[in-house]
């Protein structure tokens, strides 16, 4: 994915004006660098370039337009952070444009018609169309989220954004979001977040194993997030022990043969002592994600050769999640990576 680097001139042009976004075919696009610069600098919304791949001798403007993720677009539209434009003429069904075709017929007084009939045959058909502007309300034009997964991911995204962080797409890291504690163009992300699926907060062994392995490899903090489907739902996240144990087996089977390097920081069936961070709450399996003022580590603690997630760790994570006070219904669990010996 190409990184969008806006010039100082684009940022200057973006200041003092509201950004403009365009809803086209179910996507929210940003066409000008000034709007993208304003969304990033003032609202911590990082648009992803989808234009022509920029050559080294080309300016960043060639990367436009940029697209907002569904979660980003929902936040921008709900909070009215930008001026929204809809296509005036997209299709007859969307714009409510109905054509009334009329043909002006001329009748000759002469019986044989003659030259006038030939002239009438060459007269083009005149079409009159009565068009109505498309509805400009959010409810009628923007349908996301429509599923349980979309509802949860939107709630988690808005919660991270409300904490002063800058969440962005995490598709490159087998995650839903990556979180930046500052401008994404100036620093690396500090955490990767995956959102639990379904009404019972399920995460399959394959999802959890792939997510954990990627974060352990790139040194990012791995965070599992959950959110209720309804505002009155305050039930904590339930992590099944067999799910985590299966993920640990699948991960260790591939990674462990490289052998252990150095003294292990944890053993199977136990969790290492977590470090204390300001603004976060200590748990047996990690630290609940706090506010933006919290100094989060830039690397996963104790880089290891495998992920030792066992039934005991799953039980501790479930108990920690249950003891976590409600933060508008959104909860976070940080995974801990442990070294395990390859010797059997």
Summarize, please:
The chain is of the alpha+beta class and 344 residues long. The protein has 2 domains: 1-89, MutS, DNA mismatch repair protein, domain I, CATH 3.40.1170; 145-344, Trna Endonuclease, Chain: A, domain 1. Helix content is 29%, strand content 15%.
Strand-helix topology:
Blueprint: H1 8-14, E1 20-24, E2 27-30, H2 33-43, E3 48-49, E4 66-68, H3 70-78, E5 83-85, H4 92-95, E6 98-102, H5 115-121, E7 126-130, H6 138-141, H7 148-162, E8 166-169, E9 177-180, E10 191-195, H8 205-218, E11 221-226, H9 241-255, H10 311-323, E12 331-334
List its salient traits.
alpha+beta, MutS, DNA mismatch repair protein, domain I, 10 helices, 344 residues, 5-stranded mixed beta sheet, Trna Endonuclease, Chain: A, domain 1, 12 strands, globular
């Amino acid at each position: 994915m190409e990184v969008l680097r806006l010039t100082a001139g684009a940022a200057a042009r973006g200041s003092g004006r509201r950004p403009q976004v365009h809803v086209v075919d179910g996507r929210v696009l940003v066409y000008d660098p000034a709007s993208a610069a304003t969304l990033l600098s003032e609202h911590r919304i990082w648009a992803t370039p989808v234009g022509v791949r920029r050559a080294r001798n080309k300016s960043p403007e060639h990367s436009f337009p940029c697209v907002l993720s569904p979660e980003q677009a929902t936040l921008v539209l709900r909070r009215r952070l930008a001026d929204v434009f809809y296509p005036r003429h997209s299709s007859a069904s969307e714009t409510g444009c109905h054509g009334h075709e009329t043909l002006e017929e001329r009748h000759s007084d002469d019986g044989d018609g003659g030259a006038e009939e030939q002239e009438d045959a060459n007269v083009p058909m005149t079409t009159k169309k009565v068009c109505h502007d498309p509805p400009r309300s959010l409810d009628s034009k923007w349908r996301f989220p429509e599923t349980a997964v979309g509802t949860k991911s939107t709630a988690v995204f808005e919660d991270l954004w409300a904490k002063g962080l800058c969440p962005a797409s995490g598709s490159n890291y087998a995650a839903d979001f990556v979180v930046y504690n500052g401008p994404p163009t100036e620093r690396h992300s500090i955490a990767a977040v995956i959102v639990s699926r379904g009404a019972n907060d399920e995460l399959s062994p394959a999802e959890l194993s792939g997510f954990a392995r990627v974060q352990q490899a790139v040194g990012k903090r791995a965070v599992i997030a959950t959110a209720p489907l309804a505002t009155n739902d305050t039930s904590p996240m339930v992590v099944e022990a067999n799910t985590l144990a299966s993920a640990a087996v699948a991960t260790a089977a591939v990674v462990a043969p490289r052998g252990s390097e150095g003294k292990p920081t944890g053993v199977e069936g136990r969790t290492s002592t977590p470090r204390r961070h300001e603004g976060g709450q200590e748990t047996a399996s990690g630290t609940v994600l706090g506010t933006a003022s919290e100094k989060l580590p830039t690397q996963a603690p104790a880089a290891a050769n495998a992920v030792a997630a066992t039934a005991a760790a799953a039980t501790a994570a479930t108990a920690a999640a249950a003891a976590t006070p409600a933060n508008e219904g959104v909860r976070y669990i940080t995974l801990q990576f442990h070294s395990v010996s390859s010797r059997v």
